Amino acid sequence: VDLGYNLKEKIDMAAGRRKSELVLKNASIVNVFTQEILKGDIALAGDIIVGIGNYEGEKEIDLKGGFAAPGFIDGHMHLESTMVLPSELSAVLLARGTTTVVADPHEIVNVCGIDGIRFIMDQAKKSLLDIFIMLPSCVPATPHDSPGARFDETDMEKLVCEDRVLGLGEFMDFKGVVEGRSDVLKKLKLFRGGKIDGHAPGLSGKALNAYAVAGIRTEHEAGSVEEMLEKLRLGFYILIREGSAAKDLKTLVNGVNSGNMRRCVFCTDDRHLDDILAEGHIDNNIRMAVEAGIDPAAAIAMATLNTAECYGLNDRGAIAPGYLADIVVLEDLKNFKINMVFKSGKITVGNKGWTAGSGRDADVPEWLRNTVRLGSISKDMLDMEMCGPEANIITLVPGSLATVKAVRKVSTENGLFICKEKSDPVKLAVMDRHRASGNIGLGLLDGFGIRCGAIASTISHDSHNLIVTGDNDTDMLLAAEELGSCGGGITICSSGKVLKTLPLPVAGLMSLKPFMEVEQDLIQMLAIARSLGIPYNIEPFMTLSFLALTVIPEIRLTEKGLFDVIQDNYINYCRT
Amino acid sequence: VDLGYNLKEKIDMAAGRRKSELVLKNASIVNVFTQEILKGDIALAGDIIVGIGNYEGEKEIDLKGGFAAPGFIDGHMHLESTMVLPSELSAVLLARGTTTVVADPHEIVNVCGIDGIRFIMDQAKKSLLDIFIMLPSCVPATPHDSPGARFDETDMEKLVCEDRVLGLGEFMDFKGVVEGRSDVLKKLKLFRGGKIDGHAPGLSGKALNAYAVAGIRTEHEAGSVEEMLEKLRLGFYILIREGSAAKDLKTLVNGVNSGNMRRCVFCTDDRHLDDILAEGHIDNNIRMAVEAGIDPAAAIAMATLNTAECYGLNDRGAIAPGYLADIVVLEDLKNFKINMVFKSGKITVGNKGWTAGSGRDADVPEWLRNTVRLGSISKDMLDMEMCGPEANIITLVPGSLATVKAVRKVSTENGLFICKEKSDPVKLAVMDRHRASGNIGLGLLDGFGIRCGAIASTISHDSHNLIVTGDNDTDMLLAAEELGSCGGGITICSSGKVLKTLPLPVAGLMSLKPFMEVEQDLIQMLAIARSLGIPYNIEPFMTLSFLALTVIPEIRLTEKGLFDVIQDNYINYCRT
Question: What is the ipTM metric for this complex?
């Protein structure tokens, strides 16, 4: 219950003429304005902090010298990648000290269009976690993609003035920007002078200048210190990402120094629920940064004040009078064990100790639960005729979303590719699941390691068609059919049997279950995946889900076929 | 002429597909994002920078390794204090590298109300210099003041959505804020979540927390490192001021470190034209900071990016693609000699080499030139009856706006104060000049040093009544009459003669003359003032103009009498 003190009452409490509603006594406060740790009490009233110093409260909690940091802010994430509903995720992230996220809901929009954003906004209203929205800029991600819905500047105009909307989401179609394509310019102009997120892996030199001139001011795809520094110098905030598959932090943290720290921000981008529960969310970025030698107060500023500045969230990101009472109480500044979390003055205690309310099923409209339309599929659709002995192979890079285009000989039988030798790649297929067109793209994948089975998912960025990989057609077909019948999700099949399925009926992306159950399912499925040979340096589900994303080099697969990102065109999987 | 390239054309230039309009070749660019000095070309098109790197232009200027810094931003200034019209001042400040100012036009508003702001806005439109407005929050400055006009929340509402309006100006009535007075709260609520400037010298502890809770986020009155650090920690941006009378920089610069630098900003507040022309404007702050040991790139960031962030000016404060082409070309990073200045891509060359256009007189409406209404004044109005041997004396503190309340014996004759001994203070009088009421306040002043004469001014913050000081009534009366007849200004009289007058007919605050003439007048008048005994550590006109300002400790004089700022009430000048 927000007691809703008025400004006069808050001033009275700050001035000490009246007891504050709640005082956190004896805190070691992380001051992000000055990068100091300072002793003091924190006085709260309603949803804000009213005073720092020596205060008395109607209620008091003695922190006994415990560290108090501002609530963490994730500068860029896709809520849908956690596979639970936002109202459910709220509990998970708050327990990890994240009190605000800047979300780009482009997954659900690729499936459902503007209605998907409205659903996320409704969910956001029910969440204690503050969820802000960057409007998806690239649905479809590029002209080469075939999502379930489109979202253009006409749709954006309908939402641009909504409270939670901060700006325009990651402009993944960086080629369109650099070329100055007219449909791209229309979107950019709508947000001119505002917040526009970038996504331009490897972009450099004059092309990067062109991307900056367009008004794009953040980047979360920098892959090296050199790339990071070039982008910082041109005015981009660098969002240092530690996701489930994309793990940039250990590299980029080497580029942070006292001169550029204010322009460095943390994000997770795409991070699975199990990783959040096991390792953490933004607290994990902080912990890793401190381990790598960043001063704890600076690391916390990168997770709070810097993000708030980057997105113009002037009411948060610091423990100071007038700021939102978003406070994380930490046991120390090394392990960053979280003892308490306050969001807008409300207490949320400890990891996994807080669960979301009931009534989740009822909140999800029927049309959102019925989005997988595969059409009829048959085994022969998976046949890969080889026009020559060599193939273009999508090769994974562990710890990165990037792939490499390898060229080598593969096994064939009756002119068709067959996964026979240990050195052979496996098949990868992307099937249209939005319009039941029967469209299917086929390719070869190396480094995934699966044998005697198949894994399929309706999470496949950004169009979220059905993606399936395996060493045999029987299991691949079975996996696809399983997802077609359960409304989407992730499944693993082996030797003609479905081993386990995680249904994700909400747009084929999110579960209706409580996060604890989803976590257990994911842990079991990960163990099953490992048992089929997927190596420990590959996160199978996240990795699979990015293989259709045509904006990350070098080579991808869509329902139209194999796509060379560098050449910006479709290519054959076999070479003559 | 802004060639008005569209976004597509700018992207084409950035991408190198088309020559840029203008390229500054071989610059040593001060990168405020990373605090580095980096070699490169700066490509411009229209009013913005399109690229940094290796560029070709339709026109090219070889900087031959010269340093290029972003245009400087003054975070807080009163344009009127320069005594020239904003359209005229534009030339002066641009030549000093200042390309943007955040102005609080509360001087003219104290005289003319909302029409005064509209006049400043009209002037701003004609200026190449970018002038942003913080709406005056305290007109009258406190309930104790008697200005010519009032400006309340109803007036503010009419202007709050204007393009140039950034927020609410310095809330000098800090007592009203800390008490939570209802008229104060109305104003604060109108700007809630926005930019609100502070002004709270010496405010500390719980009272300072109350001031912060009210949403006030800047402070330019910190007088010591200790005060600065307390305010930084509570979330205030610290504006480090170097004005004509208030010189805080040498002290405060000792409090700047790499942890808090981003929250430190430069301003001038009140700086006279002659000081700007002789020593500089924000360039002077930078030069002094570097002399005191601040890294040049950091000092430049404090003058540019930090100020832009503080006031939410996202389009400026850095040399980067997409940013306004506000560029200062410097000979070195020690003396900061300015060789060239670009404002919005337009070149402005060198100090004093650029004068404003003609037609200034025509631009100033008649009502604005006729604001001094003194009524009839006579010598006996200056009589100071002494009820006892001791007096409360306003004592100046060199280099500061603060005054000290001294108590000691003074000379009398027939029961009236007389300035006879060398140790005697001089008389100070403040006369209503708005309503011809004949109201007059009398006090005694020590440290000003004037003998055989009087100085009067219609600049007397913030009510801008007529203030006059001197050692004899004849010259004081003459000085007041002189200003009454010329529409306001500054005058010096001695031995019954007017030695020199600088007429300031625009609201009694600003001249209609070109800045060069005003400067010459000021230099001559300063020499005359010195010849009357005013010591070299006192800037006579600025010092005089602050003696009526009831918000700066310890003791002031208004047309109602002697005011004790600490006790917050009027007191007698004599003690029984």
Answer: 0.91
